[in-house]
Amino acid sequence: MAVNRRIPDSDIVASRWQDRIPIERLRSCPILPRSFYARPAAEVARSVLGCTLIHGPAAGRIVEVEAYLGLSDRAAHAFRGLTKRTQILFGPPGHAYVYFIYGMHQCLNFVTEPEGSPGCVLIRSLEPLAGLETMRARRPTARKPGDLCSGPGNLTRAMDIGLSLYGADLTVGPITVHQPPQPVSGHVVVTPRIGITYCADWPLRFVLS
After folding, report:
1. N or C: which end of the chain has fewer CB within 10 A?
2. Across the strands, what pairs with 53?
3. DSSP character for 30?
4. Residue 177 DSSP SS3
5. Sign of the Cα pseudo-torsion (179, 185, 187, 192, in order)
């Protein structure tokens, strides 16, 4: 007679944090070229959904982003012009714009559009794919894998992305963005951006669902 054995809670918890795809496979996918980013921010935002963000041993699928349109967008940091903080936005596309907010969070953006046109894409959420145990150590309060990189401040903490990576070249590293290892499934939901005062009704938030 078969006996149903209860799986220990420790084993159930451990299985939840297993990597979905080996990091080596994700790294073998082509890195997005600079020309990918040299387009309007909204176009890049939609196109980057489903691509893989890699830093060190951790990787995640980009599933939520927001576009910021630079000098024409009052919600964008670049709206007030060139400053020490925003200078990277006015440079060549394909670099990381990392900034500190609310005295506690660091946020990652991709610089887009041709040099001199300061568009960018805020990376709001990732689906963890590799390095989950490493992410979990960095974010011990996460209750499940889906919580690790949910929100722009959480994902930078889980991925160990800080101000030292301001200006990093996304086509070279140490942060890289890769084509997805398999065709992107799901559909894109478009909504207004979250948590802003100006241009709050602009439909520039893109979510892969």
Report:
1. N
2. 60, 177
3. P
4. strand
5. negative
The residues near 67 (Cβ < 8 Å, ≥ 6 apart) are: 41, 42, 44, 45, 112, 119, 120, 121, 122, 204, 206
Contacts of 55 (CB under 8 A, 6+ apart): 159, 160, 161, 165, 174, 175, 176
What's the pTM? 0.91
How many angstroms separate the Cα of 119 from the Cα of each of 112, 113, 183?
A: 5, 6, 27
Question: Which residues lie below 8 Å from residue 142, measured CB to CB, with a gap of 6+?
Answer: 135, 136, 148, 154, 158
3-state helix, strand, coil in the chain (%, to 5): 30, 30, 45
Query: pLDDT tens digits for 139-192?
Result: 999 999 999 999 999 999 999 999 999 999 999 999 999 999 988 888 999 999
Return the bridge partners of 207, or none. 64, 189
Name the nearest CA neighbour of 168 among 103, 91, 102: 91
Alpha carbons 171 and 93: distance in angstroms, whole number: 10
CA distances in angstroms from 25 to 7, 61, 130, 171, listed in the order given = 31, 13, 10, 18
111 DSSP assignment: E
Distance between start and end Cα atoms, the chain: 44
The structural domains of the chain, ordered by start, are 22-208 (3.10.300.10)
Q: Which two tokens stand for residue 165?
A: 């990576």
Amino acid at 81: G
